[in-house]
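User: Design a sequence. Structure:
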């Protein structure tokens, strides 16, 4: 979690403001945060976006990175938490028993200790019903999911959400991979709310010849 006065925190608030301004009718209640590749900072963006939204809304942060869940660790929550797995297998009868308060106005629902295969979860009506029931309890649900390129989890998740925030690590992820992933995501029902260019080198980014930052096709 970042200090509220750092450039990173200010950037996250800018992302929040962009979503709010584009969502006057509050249709983007469930927001998926993903990336093309691992190590692009999507979990950091998801966590800090939840904290930014919590200044004006009640937020649920959901860890749906079933392959490598780390939101609890990132937020400093110790121990192995029950979560989605236990709910879907009916080992816990109420979501409130596995939802943890991690900050003012921010709750966390973790993957859980006993999770069926991601494919089983993401194609089950029970999972869809869980997300829908949680929507009535919160103003905003921020979902952190697996990167799109190695696995198809995020593409399956996209059909359950109202919008997608796509994180790209500056000067790292190949532009063609970003474009291909966005094309795949665009086929889902959820609109792309925006791209977050993460870990930007401010010195290089200001150079007119920076083809990565200004490259043709990246924004178009």
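Assistant: Done.
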């Amino acid at each position: 979690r970042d200090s509220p006065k750092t450039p990173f925190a200010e950037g996250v608030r800018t992302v929040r403001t962009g979503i709010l301004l584009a969502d006057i009718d509050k249709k983007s209640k469930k927001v998926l945060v993903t990336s093309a590749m691992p190590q692009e900072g999507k979990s950091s963006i998801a966590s800090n976006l939840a904290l930014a939204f919590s200044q004006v809304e009640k937020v649920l942060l959901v860890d749906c990175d079933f392959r490598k869940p780390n939101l609890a660790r990132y937020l400093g929550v110790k121990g192995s938490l029950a979560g989605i797995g236990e709910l879907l297998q009916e080992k816990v009868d109420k979501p409130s028993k596995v939802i943890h308060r991690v900050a003012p106005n921010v709750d966390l629902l973790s993957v859980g200790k006993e999770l069926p295969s991601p494919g089983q979860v993401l194609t089950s009506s029970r999972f869809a019903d869980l997300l829908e029931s949680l929507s009535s309890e919160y103003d905003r649900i921020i979902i952190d999911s697996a990167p799109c390129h190695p696995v198809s989890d995020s593409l399956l998740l996209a059909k359950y959400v109202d919008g997608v925030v796509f994180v790209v690590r500056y000067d790292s992820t190949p532009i063609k991979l970003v474009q291909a992933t966005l094309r795949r995501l665009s086929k889902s029902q959820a609109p792309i709310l925006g791209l977050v260019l993460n870990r930007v080198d401010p010195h290089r980014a200001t150079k007119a010849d920076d083809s990565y930052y200004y490259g043709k096709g990246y924004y178009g």
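Strands lie at 30-35, 59-64, 99-103, 106-109, 140-145, 163-169, 192-198. The radius of gyration is 17 Å.
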